[in-house]
Amino acid sequence: MEIASEPTSAEAPIRSFLFEGSPGEVARIVEDFCRRLFPSLPESYVQDRIGFVVKPELFVSEAKGRLVAFKVGYQNSATTFFSWLGGVDEDFRRLGLASRLAALQHARCRALGISAIETRTRADNPLMLIVNLRSGFQVVGVEADPYGRFVVLQRRSLD
Fold first, then answer.
1. CA gap 16, 78 in Å, rounded
2. For the chain, domain boundaries
3. Which 3 state secondary structure label does DSSP give 48?
4. CATH homologous superfamily for 14-119?
5. In the predicted structure, residue 137 carries a pLDDT above the cut 50
6. Three-state SS for 6?
7. 125: which of 7, 87, 94, 144 is 20 to 30 A away, CA to CA?
8. Average pLDDT, stretch 34-51?
9. Which DSSP symbol is given to 2?
10. In this predicted model, which residue has the larger pLDDT, 50 or 124?
11. What is the mean pLDDT of the chain?
12. Is the pLDDT of residue 87 over 60?
């Protein structure tokens, strides 16, 4: 699944697509992104979580053979998909890649017959909250994570 009209950076066109690989390959890519984009996350964060995921769905954006953005999630019930984690390399921000990957993810979910997407975003990440709100998510709750940080729960119907 690929979007035809792609943004470009100053250097190259950017291609966004569903990564076709094993759960182990997905984990390795997500871990690499987390090391680069979220250095404060514990090293075990991805492995601790992905072990419970049957079939992770990973969407990526690529420029000049390098992965520059990602969005990963998984189906957590017959009708609901959990959009877990995503990010964009600093040099490729403000090009709409987060929105583009979300659109691909949502189109894939519709094709699979999923009717809703859920996500959690740390309250101190206003850019992601805005991307989600612009994508049709609604705030359905707020809770504290295990570290005492506030997390905003969001849900979007795909109907």
1. 26
2. 14-119
3. helix
4. Gcn5-related N-acetyltransferase (GNAT) (3.40.630.30)
5. yes
6. coil
7. 7
8. 82
9. B
10. 124
11. 88
12. yes
